[in-house]
């Protein structure tokens, strides 16, 4: 049976590089879906890989649109009967400071956090035994964790349900809109908050799937791909840009997690960087840099 993989937000940059790796690794035994909100841009990504001799498929996907996600789910189910690999890569980052913080908070949490949650909820029932779900997080999740108050840190540590995780993300957005989020212990960083939410959600989802008797050998992990050269990082400082890696280099850890062999059990729900588990809840990667 062919392995079936879906990579969200994969018409360019890191997502495209992840599709490239999966196509090469799975070869003729794999079906890899390149997805994009915009069909024209998706076709450009598809053409790029086909010129390299690879053969991904395209499907429109907007992780902010429930109907779009459901269409992809239904098409995967009808054609393949199940899914083996889901890489939640789609995300947004606001450039500069022109966008009001309230809009940044709401948009970042909606796409970067709830997009991951909804994709996983919709596709987990299709994940076959031995399946792999990978969330692309960021080292900024760890940076954000060390910037928030000790009380909020403890709340993240204590969150053991999706409902508790959602409540923390909703609280961040509400506090930003109220204008008192810094006074309440948050850092003034919407992208960081959304990615911290993804990392915390991964822990919760991993624990839940490991206890689900209907999901055998299914792993849910998240990772930092490194400071990847993309449109999302083009506005950052020259010093940070010197730390950048190529999209193909950044794809290494997400693809590594997507292709973990059967019987892997020791990294369920973990955050990885450069193929290594990093537990920032226990000061495992402090001080934090993108070199970790």
Question: What labels would you give this structure?
Answer:
single chain, 292 residues, alpha/beta, Rossmann fold, eight-stranded mixed β-sheet, 46% helix, 15% strand
Low-confidence stretches: 233-237, 287-292
Count of DSSP strands: 8
The Rg value, from CA coordinates, equals 18 Å
The shape is globular
Task: Count structural domains.
Answer: 1
**How would you state the average pLDDT, rounded?**
92
CATH architecture heading: 3-Layer(aba) Sandwich
The number of helices is 11
Distance N terminus to C terminus? 38 Å
Order of helix and strand elements from N to C terminus: EHEHEHEHEHHHHEHHHEE
Helix content: 40-55%
Explain this structure to me?
By secondary structure, the chain is of the alpha/beta class. The chain has one domain: 3-Layer(aba) Sandwich (Rossmann fold). The protein is built from eleven helices and eight strands. The chain has helices at 13-26, 39-51, 66-80, 101-123, 140-147, 150-158, 162-178, 190-210, 238-241, 247-250, 252-258; strands at 3-7, 30-36, 57-60, 83-88, 127-136, 219-224, 271-273, 276-277. An eight-stranded mixed sheet has the order 3-2-1-4-5-6-7-8, with helices on both faces. Strand 4, helix 4 (101-123) and strand 5 form a beta-alpha-beta unit. The model is unreliable at 233-237 and 287-292 (pLDDT under 50).
